[in-house]
Amino acid sequence: SRFLHRFAQIVLVLMVLLTVVDVCLRYIFNNPITGSYELTEFMMAVLVFASVGFTQSVKDHVSVDLVITKLPDRVRALLEAITCLLAFGLFALAAWRNVLHTGTTWERHDVSAELFIPVSPFVLFVALGLAVLSLVLLVQFFQSLARVLKT
Fold this sequence. Notes:
Blueprint: H1 2-28, H2 36-57, H3 73-107, H4 120-150
Helix pairs in contact: 1-2, 2-4, 3-4
């Protein structure tokens, strides 16, 4: 997840540079970069799904814990284990479905509208990001379960 997060940081810099250059060319020379919107969309998909596993591993997702902080540590750990296990199942299923969808987009030769970039590698990258997130959730499930059994 850390490697993908570093990759996402590079993609973010490239996306910002693309947007800045596109805006400058659009307003100064009235000649924007062809397909910059499409490129930004693809980069955004890479950015989000490359970072989601790392964000979960450092527990930086937004969470509301008004009630759960009042509970005993063991109950909190049990609820976290259940949540991680359910989330693992959901995101593992989503990763698997995206792998299947990659095959469909590959067979149909789906491409973007303006630059004709194949869509299937990006769908596969979404599956990779979801698979990494699933593995992080599985690790966190076992960590939470260990805390339940320890306390």
